[in-house]
Amino acid sequence: MPYKHTTKTSTTLHPDGRYESKTVEETTRVPAAGLGRKAIDIINEKNAAKSPWVAFEYYPPRTEDGTRNLVKRFHKMNKQGPAYGDMTWGAGGSTSDLTLELCTTMLHEVGMEPNMHLTCTNMEVAKIDAALEGAKKVSIRNIVALRGDPPHGQEKWEATEGGFECALDLIKYIRKHHGDYFCVSTAGYPEGHPNVILPVKDESKLSESELTRVVRNSDGVFVCSDADYEKELKYLKDKVDAGAEFIITQMFFEAKLFTKFVNDCRAYGINCPIMPGIMLIQSFGGFKRMTSLCKSRVPAELMAAIDAIPNNSKAEHDKLVKEFGIQQGAKICRELLADGHYGLHLYSLNLEQVTYGVMKELGLLTE
After folding, report:
1. Residue 333, exposed/middle/buried by CB under 10 A (0-12, 13-18, 19+)?
2. CB–CB of 200/206 below 8 Å?
3. Which of 95, 181, 332, 333 is deepest in the core (most CB within 10 A)?
4. Helix, strand, coil distribution of the chain in percent, nearest 5
5. Do the Cβ atoms of 363 and 74 come closer than 8 Å?
6. Residue 210 C-beta-side C-alpha neighbours within 13 Å
7. What pTM does this model have?
């Protein structure tokens, strides 16, 4: 495997007036020709072609067997020509070594361009530096800068002493210390960030815009107010102005909601590419948990349809839910493509059946 060796010399002035020079050799792992590219360049090329294309998102498995199986899936799914492979980051760097290892494997052994998540949760500056330097040494060029969720068991997010307050701080830090080496992307929230999706006291007072975002679930009625939504757009523009080059959205289940979000961003002066984050329905329980956690707006007809799936046996129910997930995923993708959104960021949940099923329905699957 190819490596690039460089030397760096630094000079230190000691208190006694002596100068000391120190030379350190640095080794960088070099990817195969055509790899080690910035995701933004790939996105711009693919969007210019005005044809549908995909990217896949994965997460680090909890077991060694799971990791081995995921690497096999990388090889298999790379045959579909994804623009990049997104890899999430555990809170507080809980999966930092594995995230970097999987991204390295993705780039150098599989030939898929990695887009590595990096969060602020429980991450002091030294850990951020280690993650960025580690990525640089293996020629990873793409970072998703995020605040991150609270650690497991902690309800409220808190900044780490000596760390960062938010994704904006992280983006500024990356640009200050690494210039334009990395393509930095960030998160966007078509329905508003879950922290500002709050209980509705009087539905009759909701604005027309708020009604497009209102969330109804078993816990009640919630919405991101117009005032908070405006703050969300301002903060998103601040992140883009600080150096974020494209946006990946939180999951949503209505194409028109995403299109409205894109139009709102454009009106606010946010002109970078915006990738629709498409959560594919893989299991009944997972869908219910995730939509509740994220306070996602789920259309009543979609919730009714998934609740109506016959549940005579677990195996049959799981099969029917996946079949439903394929049809639902293909439907929202078709609507997005019809609205002119060519790139589809698919949350694969490390599984291929529903992902491939949706691509086949769209005529995008390479057999």
Report:
1. buried
2. yes
3. 333
4. 45, 20, 35
5. no
6. 19
7. 0.89
Averaged over 209-230, what is the pLDDT? 95
| Cβ partners under 8 Å of residue 95, min gap 6 | 60, 88, 89
Report H helices in the chain.
Answer: 39-49, 64-77, 96-105, 125-137, 167-178, 208-211, 226-242, 255-267, 284-293, 300-307, 314-338, 353-362
Name residues whose C-beta falls within 8 Å of residue 324's C-beta, 6 or more positions apart in sequence. Answer: 281, 305, 306, 309
Question: Tokens in use for 71?
Answer: 């690497």
Question: Using alpha carbons only, what angle is made at residue 329 by residues 326 and 330, rounded to the nearest 5 degrees?
Answer: 85
Task: Tell me: pLDDT of 5 over 60.
Answer: no
Q: Mind listing the pLDDT tens digit for each residue in 231-254?
A: 999 999 999 999 999 999 999 999
Quote the distance between the C-alpha of residue 324 and its chain's center: 24
Spot the catalytic one: 20, 25, 45, 57.
57
> Is 60 in contact with 98 (CB distance < 8 Å)?
yes
Instruction: Kindly state the tokens that stand for 78.
Output: 């790379």
**Amino acid making up residue 136:** K
Residue 149 and residue 94: Cα distance in Å, rounded?
12
To which residue do tokens 């129910």 refer?
317
- 3-state secondary structure (DSSP) of residue 343: strand
Around Cβ 245, how many Cβ atoms within 10 Å?
21
How many other CB atoms are there within 10 angstroms of residue 238's CB atom? Answer: 15
- The answer to whether residue 191 is catalytic is no
- What is the sign of the dihedral through the CA atoms of 217, 146, 192 and 352? negative
